Amino acid sequence: MQTRAIVFTAPNQVALESIEIPAPAAGEVLIESIYTLISPGTELRCRAGQQEGVVFPFIPGYSMVGRVVGRGAGVSLPEGTLVFCGGTSKASLNLAWGGHVAHAIQPAGNVYPLPEGMNPLHAPAAKLAAIAYRGVRLSNPRPHETVAVIGLGAIGLLAAQLHALSGARVVAADLSPYRVANAQKAGLEAFVPQGNLGEAFRAYFPNGADVVVDATGAPAVLAQAVEVARDKPWDDSPELGARVVIQGSYAGAFSLPYQAVFMKELSFYVPRDVQPRDIRAMLDVMARGKLNVETLISAVRAPETAPETYAALAEPGAELITAAFHWQ
What is the pLDDT along the chain (328 residues), one digit of tens a residue? Predict the structure, then answer.
């Protein structure tokens, strides 16, 4: 069938185009999209042509909510069910990862029915929240600990909220006054740092943070993030060094200040996307109102506005965290 998709046609070129997807085969469902959500770090990297293995033209995105409107043989999921999925698994164009489409084909086992009563506008944030939650599962914050989150874009905003749910004290920083004010609306303690990050955070955590989350994707900032972590005493304490979660989206290699890392005996975690249970958990958490999604989705726009929406997100100091496309 013919449908529509947002397509990255060449580096920094975006269009809304007609594409073809097949009818659902056995075990597959056809989903009519309601909302799709931009993952800014990954999709802007793809748009710039910096995603390894992706060939233009392609359909970007991996966060979609829609309604099941067709089923292949052997599928028990009822038509009309609202579901989250990563987009379409089949199309007449390359996929990275096929999220921004008006219709999608997916194996029935790859879709997630929404909890009863969940706002379908909030649901596409499940993937971004699951990415941040994967970092929380690795860092394992405890109520008596301190967490510093650096960068308050989409992933940083969610990471700060999810770490706070553990009971740990969370303080977040971003150079954007808009992002800091937005985080404060979500109930977070946040500030605009002046000068060196390590020194700026000392006003909140004099002994340094037990967990540091880098959500910037900026190599220069990552090097400074090491300074925010607490020191490890030279004694017989069984306490381990601080943990650093590299949650930012990096296009290539980065370096770390070895001596500082060595002296603090830091542990590093690099979350590898998500597991299915992470998405299920975040759908449940959002449905119960434990995450402030309104501060995440700054705008809801028609797919026809995709070129200017991505251009706006790419602007330094943009007053957008992310944007959703409304397909109906």
Answer: 999 999 999 999 999 999 999 999 999 999 999 999 999 999 999 999 999 899 999 999 999 999 999 999 999 999 999 999 999 999 999 999 999 999 999 999 999 999 999 999 999 999 999 999 999 999 999 999 999 999 999 999 999 999 999 999 999 999 999 999 999 999 999 999 999 999 999 999 999 999 999 999 999 998 899 999 999 999 998 889 999 999 998 888 999 999 999 999 999 999 989 999 999 999 999 999 999 999 999 999 999 999 999 999 999 888 999 999 999 9
* Token output for 67: 């309604």
Q: What are the two backbone dihedrals, phi and then psi, of residue 30, each rounded to the nearest 5 degrees?
A: -105, 125
For residues 28 and 114, the answer to whether their CB atoms sit within 8 Å is no
Residue 164 sits at the vertex; the CA angle it makes with 185 and 298, to the nearest 5 degrees, is: 35
Which domains are present in the chain? Answer: 2-122+293-326 (3.90.180.10), 128-269 (3.40.50.720)
Element at 66 (helix H, strand E): strand 64-71
> Distance between CA atoms of 226 and 235, rounded to whole angstroms?
21
- Angle made by CA atoms 135, 298, 120, in degrees to the nearest 5: 75
Total Cβ atoms within 10 A of residue 133:
26
Element (H, E) at 85: strand 82-85
* Burial class of residue 178, CB neighbours in 10 A (0-12, 13-18, 19+): middle
d(CA 121, CA 296): 11
Q: Give the 3-state secondary structure of 161-226.
A: HHHHCCCCEEEEECCCHHHHHHHHHCCCEEECCCCCHHHHHHCCCCCCECEEEECCCCHHHHHHHH
